[in-house]
Specification:
Layout (H helix, E strand, L loop, with lengths): L5 H5 L5 H9 L6 E7 L2 H14 L6 E7 L4 E3 L4 E3 L2 H8 L7 E2 L7 H10 L3 E5 L7 H4 L6 E5 L11 H7 L4 E8 L9 E8 L6 H25 L1 H5 L27 H10 L6 E8 L5 E13 L11 E5 L2 E6 L3 E9 L5 E3 H6 L5 E4 L2
Helix pairs in contact: 3-4, 3-8, 7-10
C-alpha cells in the first residue's frame, strides 16, 4: 500500500511538470483530465478512468486528483485519506498531484490547478462547492456525474430522496457544472429501473458504475467541444430538490403506511439508518421502552394473525408491526443498541414470553 502523507498533499503542488509526466506521459497529445471525488462510489469512477486512460487510443490522461482532506475515523480517530485518495495512492498516482483543499476557493489550490492546465474537470460526489474561479479554469468545462434524471432530485441526496419517494425509475446524468445547483446543460443520461427492495448504498454504487461507462463514452465529444453544442438546457420548471439527510429524520412513525416506512428504511440504509421506539412488556405487565435500529423490511401483503391493535406480532421470520391504513410492516433484520445485527426471528426467540407493543 502506498504511503499517505497528509502534510505533503496539503502543500498542493511542487513538481507539476515531472509529476504530470509520470501521471500521464509527456508528448502523448492526450488531454489533461482532473478528477474530483471523495467517497467509495467516486473511487470506483476514478479507477475506471485510470484504466481507460491507459489505453493507447485514449484521448485523455488523469493529470490530477482532488478530494476531501483526511478525516478522523474509527475509534482511534486516526486521520485517514478519503476513498478516492487511497485508491489513487494504491494505483501509484503521484502523491503531490493529489490535492486536498479544505475549500475549492483557496487561492493556493486554484493556482496549483492552473499549473496542471486541465482541459476538463470531472466531479463525482466531491462534496465541495466549486466557485466560478474554479469553473473558469478547464478549457472544456467541468462535468458532473449526478445519480438522478436531472432536473429531478437536484442536491446532495438524490438517490436517498428518490427511494424515499418510492420511484420505480431513476438514472444517472452527465451535466456541465454551473454555479446554480445541478442546473447545467445535460450532455447525456441513462435510465435505470428500481426494484422495491434495493437500498440506497447498492443503488448509488450501480448508478455511479453506469455513470462511469456513460462518461467514458462521452469524453471524446466533451474534449473536442461537440458535447457543448449538443448539450440540452434543463427545464427548471420540472426541477425537484434532494436535500441532505439528517439524523433527526431517521425515526420511524407507525402512524404512516407501511410502504412509506419501507421506502424510508431503503433510503436511509447506511447513514443515518432508521430507528424506532417500541414498548417491551414483561410477564408482570411492566412496560419498558426499547429502541431498535430497523435494517431490512418489506410490506406485508397479508397478516393472518389478529391481536391488540398496538401489539407487534411474529410470523415466520418477520416482526409484524401494525401501521396506518390497516397495513403491516415486516421487519426482517434489526439491531439493538450496542449489539450486532440480528434476524427478526432470533430476536423474537429471545423475548422469552415478553410482548412487544407500539408506543401509545
Amino acid at each position: 500500500m502506498a504511503r499517505y502523507s497528509p502534510p505533503s498533499l496539503r502543500r498542493f503542488f511542487r513538481c507539476a511538470a515531472s509529476s504530470a509526466s509520470r501521471a500521464g506521459g509527456s508528448g502523448t497529445g492526450k488531454k489533461n483530465l482532473v478528477f474530483l471525488g471523495s467517497p467509495q462510489v467516486a473511487a470506483s469512477v476514478l479507477d475506471k478512468l485510470l484504466g481507460a486512460s491507459g489505453s493507447p487510443e485514449s484521448a485523455f490522461k488523469v493529470a490530477a486528483v482532488v478530494t476531501q482532506p483526511p478525516a478522523a475515523k474509527n475509534r482511534g480517530r486516526k486521520l485517514m485519506p478519503s476513498a478516492v485518495a487511497q485508491l489513487a495512492l494504491d494505483r501509484g498516482f503521484p502523491e503531490e498531484l493529489i490535492f486536498t483543499p479544505e475549500r475549492a476557493r483557496e487561492e493556493s489550490f486554484l493556482s496549483a490547478l492552473k499549473e496542471v492546465e486541465p482541459d476538463v474537470c470531472i466531479t463525482a460526489a466531491y462534496g465541495n462547492i466549486l466557485p466560478q474561479k474554479f469553473l473558469d479554469i478547464p478549457s472544456c468545462g467541468t462535468v458532473n456525474i449526478h445519480p438522478s434524471l436531472l432536473p429531478l432530485y437536484r442536491g446532495a441526496a438524490p438517490v436517498q430522496r428518490a427511494l424515499q419517494d418510492g420511484v420505480a425509475e431513476t438514472g444517472v446524468s452527465l451535466a456541465y457544472t454551473v454555479r446554480a445547483l445541478d442546473a447545467g446543460p445535460m450532455i447525456a443520461c441513462e435510465r435505470f429501473s428500481v426494484d422495491e427492495c434495493i437500498k440506497a448504498p447498492e443503488l448509488l454504487s450501480m448508478l455511479f458504475d453506469l455513470g462511469s461507462k456513460l462518461l467514458i463514452n462521452e469524453l471524446p465529444s466533451i474534449l473536442d467541444g461537440s458535447a457543448k453544442e449538443k448539450a440540452q438546457p434543463q427545464d427548471d420548471s420540472k426541477a425537484t430538490l434532494a436535500p441532505k439527510l439528517n439524523s433527526e429524520e431517521s425515526w420511524l412513525s407507525f402512524d404512516q403506511e407501511a410502504k412509506v416506512l419501507h421506502n424510508k428504511v431503503r433510503a436511509f440504509a447506511g447513514w443515518p439508518g432508521t430507528r424506532a421506539k417500541l414498548q417491551l412488556v414483561n410477564q408482570n405487565s411492566v412496560p419498558d421502552v426499547l429502541e431498535i435500529k430497523v435494517i431490512s423490511t418489506k410490506v406485508s401483503t397479508s397478516c393472518v394473525k389478529v391481536g391488540d391493535e398496538n401489539e407487534i406480532l411474529f410470523s415466520g421470520s418477520s416482526l409484524l408491526i401494525p401501521c396506518s391504513g390497516s397495513t403491516w410492516l415486516e421487519v426482517l433484520e434489526l439491531q439493538l443498541p450496542g449489539k450486532k445485527l440480528t434476524k427478526a426471528q432470533d430476536f423474537g426467540n429471545g423475548l422469552r414470553g415478553q410482548k412487544l407493543m407500539k408506543l401509545p
